[in-house]
Design a protein that fits this description.
The protein has 142 residues and is an alpha/beta fold. The protein has one domain (14-142): Rossmann fold. Helices cover 30% and strands 16% of the residues. It is built from five helices and four strands; from the N terminus they run αααβαβαββ. Strands 3-2-1-4 form a four-stranded parallel beta sheet, covered by helices on one side.
Length: 142
Amino acid sequence: MKQKQNDPNLDRIDWNAWRAKFDTLSYTDQQAAYAEAEKYYPDQRHFPLELIIAIVKYCEDRPNQTFRVLELGGWKGELADTVLKQCPNITFWNNVELLESCRTDPNCVDDRYNVEVLEDYIWNSPPKWDMISSLRLMSLSI
């Protein structure tokens, strides 16, 4: 996330230190880091407009086809909220996340939207979600 120079939270999180130890953090440590980010940066509407346009166009070009979306790391559903309003032929959007607050306090309240909160890293957890999805998206916070 690009920070503004006048951001009062600029020094609250040492993003470079987090990146440096990213691959050694336990799942609990990673959840704590995300919770800290949520505290200071709750608005995560930072996704490329081109992606939204491409998804909407893809769906519109196939009006008689339905889609299921699997999104890894969709935070509180900001992208889902934006896309689902424009794509009625998406029948289900499943967001797989680290924080319980993403499920209990989502920004997307569409009935087609669901949040799965992992209990451990994705490679250590058997999937509980539908792996047969028409569209797969991955969001990263690095």
